[in-house]
Design a protein that fits this description.
Blueprint: E1 2-8, E2 11-20, E3 23-26, H1 27-30, H2 39-44, H3 46-58, E4 63-64, E5 68-71, E6 79-83, H4 87-97, H5 103-107, E7 111-113, E8 119-120, E9 125-127, E10 135-136, E11 139-145, E12 161-169, E13 171-172, H6 173-179, E14 196-204, E15 214-219, E16 222-228, H7 236-243, E17 253-256, H8 265-268, E18 277-282, E19 286-293
Keywords: Hydrolase
GO molecular function, one term: hydrolase activity
Protein name: Fumarylacetoacetate hydrolase family protein
Length: 295
C-alpha cells in the first residue's frame, strides 16, 4: 500500500488514506472509523491495523486527487536519524576536508539526529535559511519503523519496518563544512525550518525490496544525480540492528539511508538557486517535488 496523510484542497483537518489508482481512499471513513486519522496512531496499531486497512480499501471508492493535498506521510516523526551509508558520499568527505575517511565509518553505521519539527511534504516550499549562501539537496530514501523493539538481530530487522519513503535531507553546505571542524556537527547546517522533506507517500514493506533501487535527482527537469541503493555499504537491516542496541526503536521513528554518490550539488559543484524545482525519484517510491524559495 501507498499510505498518505492528506487534507482537502478546501482545508480542514488532515486524515490518512491509501493511494488507489488515481485517487485516495480515506482509511477512517472506509473502516467505519475503526482506524485512526493520524499516521502515527495508525503505525502504533501494527500489523492488525495494516490488515484492516487492506480490507477497507478493497471495498471503498477513492476520492479524486484533484480534491486533495498531500502532506508528509508522517508529518512529525517520533525521531529522525540519518546515516552515511554510501561509501561514494563518504569519499566526498575526504575530498572536502583533506582528511582520510575515518576508520569508524568502516566499523559501524554512524548517524546523526535531526529535528522532527522541521519536516515538510510534497509540493511544500523549501525556505532558504537566512544564514546560508549554499543550500543543497541530498538524494536519499529511508525507513519508518512500525514495530517496537530493542537489541534487534539483523535477520529480523526488516520485520520492524512499516515502509519506505523518499527523503530530501536539505543542507546549508558551507555551514556544515565549518561546523564539522569542531568534531561535533552537523548542527545548524542541518537544523532549519523545512530542512527535512519526506514523501510523497509511505510504501509498505511488502511492496519494496530496498536492496537495488534506482535513485535520481532532477533540478528544473534536468538530471543532476543518479544512484542505486545497491551501493549502500550498510544495509537497513544492519543499521536498524546497530541503532537498537540497548535502545528501543518505536513506531514512527525515521532512519535515512544517507546520500548516494554524487547525490548532492556539492559533489557536482552545482548549486541551487531560489525558484529551483527539486524532484527526487526513487524506484517504487514515486517522486518528491518541492520548490526553493527565498524571502
Amino acid at each position: 500500500m501507498k499510505l498518505v496523510t492528506y487534507s482537502s484542497t478546501k482545508g480542514g483537518i488532515p486524515s490518512i488514506g491509501v493511494m488507489v489508482g488515481d485517487g485516495i481512499v480515506d482509511l477512517p471513513e472506509a473502516s467505519g472509523h475503526r482506524l485512526p486519522a493520524t499516521m502515527l496512531a495508525f503505525l502504533e496499531g501494527g500489523d492488525a491495523f495494516m490488515d484492516m486497512a487492506r480490507a477497507a480499501v478493497a471495498a471503498a471508492a477513492p476520492r479524486p486527487l484533484a480534491e486533495i493535498r498531500l502532506h508528509a506521510p508522517l508529518p512529525r516523526p517520533q525521531s529522525i536519524r540519518d546515516t552515511i551509508s554510501f561509501e561514494g558520499h563518504m569519499r566526498f568527505f575526504k575530498e572536502r576536508t583533506g582528511r582520510p575517511v575515518p576508520d569508524v565509518w568502516f566499523e559501524r553505521p554512524i548517524y546523526y539526529k535531526g529535528n522532527p519539527a522541521t519536516v515538510i511534504g510534497p509540493d511544500d516550499d523549501i525556505r532558504w535559511p537566512n544564514f546560508s549562501e549554499k543550500l543543497d539537496y541530498e538524494l536519499e530514501f529511508g525507513v519508518i519503523i512500525g514495530t517496537r523493539g530493542s537489541d534487534i538481530p539483523i535477520e529480523k530487522a526488516l520485520d520492524h519496518v512499516a515502509g519506505y519513503v523518499i527523503f530530501n535531507d536539505m543542507s546549508a553546505r558551507e555551514t556544515i563544512t565549518y561546523e564539522t571542524g569542531g568534531n561535533l556537527g552537523p548542527a545548524k547546517g542541518k537544523d532549519f525550518d523545512t530542512g527535512n522533506v519526506m514523501g510523497p507517500w509511505l510504501v509498505t514493506r511488502d511492496e519494496i525490496d530496498p536492496s537495488d533501487l534506482a535513485l535520481e535527482a532532477r533540478i528544473n527537469g534536468e538530471v543532476w544525480s543518479r544512484g542505486r541503493s545497491s551501493d549502500m555499504r550498510w544495509s537497513f537491516a544492519q543499521i536498524i540492528s546497530f541503532i537498537s542496541q540497548s535502545e528501543t526503536l518505536h513506531p514512527g521513528d525515521f532512519i535515512g539511508s544517507g546520500t548516494c554518490e554524487k547525490g548532492c550539488g556539492a559533489e557536482l559543484d552545482r548549486w541551487l538557486k531560489p525558484g529551483d524545482v527539486i524532484e527526487l525519484a526513487v524506484e517504487g517510491l514515486g517522486v518528491l517535488r518541492n520548490t526553493v524559495t527565498r524571502a
